[in-house]
Amino acid sequence: MKKTLSFLLAFTLLYSLCGCGNSNSGASSGADAAKTHAPQQEVSASQNGGGIGTHNFNFFVIQSEATTYYASALKFAEMMNEASEGKIVIQVHANGSLSGGDQSVALEMIQKGTIDMGMVTAAVCGNMINDLRVTLIPFVFDGEAHVDNALMKGSELYTLYEDEFNQVDIHMLGIAEHGFRDIMTTQKSIISPEDLKGLKVRVLATPVLVDFYKAMGVNVTDISNTEIYTALQNGTIDAQENPLVQSYLAGYTSVAPFVTTWDYCYDAHPFLMSNGLWNSLTPEEQALFTSVTEEWIPIQRQMMRDAYQDAYDSAVADGATIVALTEDQKDTFRIISDETSKPYIEELSSAYDLLVKAKPVF
């Protein structure tokens, strides 16, 4: 993990020296930050009758510069800069600085074109695109191969989301990865539903997950990521659930060292741009964004998956206890989620059927 962190820091420094990195990760307000970093078009390709023009775009990222998630956004910016022969420069802004740290605000700003592009969790996008909430149903995905089949460009489910975003004036470039969410506590390993009873757990604020945890007797709370470490440290909460990569880099595993991995909920992050900006691009520029994104998405997912293994190894080396549930142990949780998820499966039946249909057959 130390090698990985050193690489991320070196990559970020090198990228910033090349003029494509993020120079603003402060806590300025969303409106001020977006205004300060509004796109600057030195030469408009459309004015030249097509081709690739010179552009400077911003890219919203909710996580910090220390994360692989942020590094993956830098990778996209690098790929676009190279593919456009230096004409398209994308500045990646960490810590949600373009929207004051609020992903809901960021989604609205992307829709309006105030933010050029960004990755936003499905839990937030689901408030606008209802069918996206199906990806958050516990145990709906049967591993990474199922994720890749269901959410890659060209799949039936992807096409559904693409069309639904278009209806709200957003162009979906792709679906990036945050990863499967794990649970970690300050007290004990979670092996069965009974282990969660009575615990105060910070849970992603989406109804299908809240219902799942409440059915197990959990005292569910929703606090921001910036408050999780202190809340775990001082006992305000007993546990939290997030992908291990984020949790390790944020230091959560040092104060909640009992980690359970169980692949129970996948956190998809659609990669978005406003239709207004998309339609202002020339056909050549649109084709470039499309081709680079298609090449980048598998790279982004692999970066996140490699970082997960690094975080796992490093957390264990630092003294964390990590338990990977067996399928039989997961079944005790599936019995509960099968009941609590029924209303959502019925409501989202079309999207649910497409997701299930995408399950690989071996």
> Count of DSSP helices?
16
- Secondary-structure-derived class: alpha/beta
How many domains? The number is 2
**Radius of gyration, whole Å:** 20 Å
Strand portion:
15-25%
Number of strands: 12
SSE sequence, one letter per element: HHEEHEHEHHHEEEHEHEHHEEHHEHHH
Mean pLDDT: 89
**CATH architecture level-2 label of the largest domain:** 3-Layer(aba) Sandwich
The end-to-end span amounts to 33 Å
The level of helicity is 40-55%
Kindly report the name of the CATH homologous superfamily of the largest domain: Bacterial extracellular solute-binding protein, family 7
Tell me, what is the CATH class of the largest domain?
Alpha Beta
CATH fold type of the largest domain: D-Maltodextrin-Binding Protein, domain 2
Shape summary: globular
Main pleated sheet: 6 strands, mixed
